[in-house]
From TrEMBL:
Pfam families: Rhomboid, UBA
Location of the region described as Disordered in the Swiss-Prot/TrEMBL record: 280-314
Subcellular location per the Swiss-Prot or TrEMBL entry: Membrane
A GO MF label: serine-type endopeptidase activity
GO cellular component: membrane
Polar residues composition-biased segments: 280-289, 304-314
Transmembrane helix keyword on record: yes
Listed name of the protein: UBA domain-containing protein
InterPro entries, sorted: Peptidase_S54_rhomboid_dom, Rhomboid-like_sf, UBA, UBA-like_sf
Source species of the chain: Acacia crassicarpa (northern wattle)
Entry coiled-coil feature ranges: none
Keyword Cytoplasm: no
Membrane disposition: Multi-pass membrane protein
Length: 408
């Protein structure tokens, strides 16, 4: 038999798996931008001046469509490849957090805000009385990179990282990461729109700080759009991500708000915070009452142990008394008092038992005197007889055995 051969997946298989892992909207944007570029390449379309972002055409001719057409067209193969490869990780992460419909709205909102910032800055620079920059009004910009810079700012804010790596070469503070990338791209590449990228960064910060919250609809609006018949075919696709409605205000919370709660947790005693979340055992001095078993709880064997210990102490005392009498030592008053208490207790117990069964109390006393006289007539000492009868609970046979064992 041939041994098991481990073969690697082919390149088409890897590409298919990679494409299936990209969410619906992100893969749609990549597909649309790629198709548009290849169609323009095939038909020889290069009149990008008709679709690019031009502040002068937007202001003078009111060609607002340029705001959205400019982000779909790209000037070269490297341009579209670089932008789409950067979009895949950023867009996939944001789409999984926000949902496909919400991310589409955010992209349109960022594109609109980028255009507004771009036009305002270009107007201010062109009409600057000190030194005017009129070429900014005639600039023609295309590409998805402005939206990418906005996504970079949002993703950096969400990640909570204190520093970010620039192409693995060096680390920079996270708040300056987007600006460092802007400078690097300006130095390494030609024909790059500085103002377009800068406006993308400004839009990202504006979104992060909640300046666009009044423009963001609630989750019910996204849910209504997702349940409409127009998107029924898209929603059924496995790559489509439905808006879960986790955030009631409809926008991603910034990392600074999360840090405020986490810093409060870490500022105190860590062990105290962890132990407070652990289940604690309550110690109660009151007995636990079970409705199925009413009454006072009692530990099994506790009464039996107490009775056994009491009987053991009584028998030890009685044995010591017998030993003292046999050795000829006189009994002191304390010992006699203790023995008398024991005898009285036994007698009281027998009296109670006798009374419970209806026997008169004086009959029990007479029976005890008769037992004492009977044992004394057998030659035993009266004191030893009383102690032996108390130890034997009035049983003559047991009392005789105790007295015989002491004499032997």
């Amino acid at each position: 038999m041939r041994p098991h051969i481990v073969t690697e997946a082919s390149v088409p298989t890897r590409l298919s798996q990679w494409w299936e892992n990209i969410p619906f909207l992100t893969s749609t944007v990549v597909f649309v931008c790629g198709i548009i570029y290849f169609v323009c390449l095939l038909v020889g379309y290069d009149s990008f001046g008709e679709v690019c972002f031009s502040p002068s055409d937007i202001v003078s001719r009111f060609q607002v469509y340029r705001i959205y057409t400019s982000i779909l067209f790209h000037g070269s193969l490297l341009h579209v490849l670089f932008n789409m490869m950067a979009l895949v990780p950023l867009g996939s992460e944001m789409e999984r957090i926000m949902g496909s419909v919400r991310l589409l709205y955010v992209i349109l909102l960022l594109a609109t805000s980028n255009a507004i910032f771009h036009v305002l800055i270009a107007l201010l620079a062109a009409h600057n009385p000190i030194n005017s920059y009129e070429y900014l009004m005639n600039e023609c910009a295309i590409g998805f990179s402005g939206i990418l810079f906005s996504m970079i700012v949002i993703e950096t804010s969400l990640s909570g990282a204190q520093s970010r790596s620039v192409f693995g070469l060096f680390n920079v503070p996270a708040k300056w990461y987007a600006f460092i990338l802007l400078v690097v791209f300006q130095l390494l590449m030609s024909n790059v729109s500085l103002l377009g990228h800068l406006c993308g960064i400004l839009s990202g910060f504006a979104y992060t700080y909640g300046l666009f919250n009044f423009l963001l609809p609630g989750t019910s609006v996204y849910s209504a759009i997702e349940t409409s018949s127009l998107l029924s075919s898209c929603v059924r696709r496995p790559k489509f991500i439905v808006c879960t409605g986790g955030n009631s205000s409809g926008y991603i919370p910034t990392h600074s708000s999360e840090n405020s709660s986490s810093s409060g947790f870490l500022s105190g005693n860590l062990w105290r915070n962890l132990s407070s979340m652990m289940p604690q055992r309550e110690v109660s001095t009151q007995p636990v009452q079970d409705n199925r078993f009413p009454g006072r709880g009692r530990t099994l064997g506790s009464d039996h142990g107490q009775q056994a210990s009491a009987l053991s102490s009584d028998s030890n005392l009685q044995a010591r008394l017998l030993d003292d009498n046999n050795s000829g030592h006189p009994l002191d008053s304390s010992t006699l008092g203790t023995a008398q208490q024991i005898s009285d207790g036994r007698q009281a117990g027998s009296n109670v038992t006798t009374a419970a069964v209806g026997v008169p109390q004086h009959q029990g006393a007479v029976a005890s005197d008769e037992k004492i006289k009977k044992l004394v007539s057998m030659g035993f000492d009266r004191t030893q007889v009383e102690v032996a009868l108390a130890a034997a609970d009035g049983d003559l046979n047991v009392a005789v055995e105790i007295l015989m064992s002491q004499q032997s």
